[in-house]
């Protein structure tokens, strides 16, 4: 009975496991899920996250520079022959067991504000690492969104070709009947069959393009199960947006406070300024304080009865405290401080130039994105009008073909022009959607929201 129940439980668990595998294979990914998964599993992002962790450790180091150092030391020794008694500093020739212990502390009081500047630099460094991490995530969002939209565009194109092929099949069936009844010449049938074959080839190409687009998206997500990977067929429509109500200059000004690459570049200038301040701090004197407590034990340290004084009692009798201040004034160091200051000043000038260059690149990208949106929207409008016109022309051609006023070749040409126009409309639509999201990204709208 127990064996039977165990087998039953095993079968149930196996069925549940199979159901989970099937559900996992049937999962279709949304754009948000793709973006989040890509960010979570991207190796470069993980490396940038380690850079951020390292920057946080550097910040803790900078904070530690303000804390006094505290160290303890102890030793026990056995000496034979001529040696020095640590409690009397006299030479003795007897065997001796001795012990020493000390506690010391040091504190930097003034170092030309280098510790303060180092702490501020560490804070800026962690901020820069965070901006660079977020900038890498932004790049991933753009790449994944573009790949995701390519999948949808190719799939929609394939669906359109399939619908057109179904209509052609009806025309093919009707034409066969008319040819068999002697109403139409056999050449008309051959022309319709050629059109159907062309549409089948278009379907195959669109399906292959969809597969390639899915594989490319899966690779971005580092998913190797291409066969079972798929996205949600959400059928995106043109999103509403008021981004074109703003001028490129207004979008650029907003992007300066939004784009993480620019924010990271700006922080890098501040880092270079702190490096220069730290280098200048080396010209100032350094003032420090120190304290030391020490005690010792010797088995030769005896009382009036020539008995060795107990260990703990000796620690109290032989202890001492020393403290003091130290001042270090730099005068001549081979021009090292001066040269280091000059190097840091040059590095600061270089970083300021890089920051200006980054802003110019951003302004160029914003203007290009703005032009792409306007251009792609005009293309979409033109493609929409073209489809409407081609559809009317096709309907008119079909009516003429049905009553024998148009031959099959002319009818096939009208159908082919409609097929091409609808494919171009789909391409223009998704191209406009992506360009729109890129421009909105510069304005601070999250790229994973379509």
UniProtKB/TrEMBL annotation:
SUPFAM superfamilies: Outer membrane efflux proteins (OEP). One of its GO terms (molecular function) is porin activity. Keywords: Cell outer membrane, Membrane, Signal, Transmembrane, Transmembrane beta strand, Transport. Its main location: membrane. The keyword Signal applies. Residues 1-24 form the signal peptide. It comes from the Bacteria. It is found in: Cell outer membrane. One of its GO terms (cellular component) is cell outer membrane. InterPro entries: OMP_efflux, TolC-like. Transmembrane segments: none annotated. Belongs to the outer membrane factor (OMF) (TC 1.B.17) family. This is TolC family protein. The lineage of its organism: Bacteria, Pseudomonadati, Bacteroidota, Flavobacteriia, Flavobacteriales.
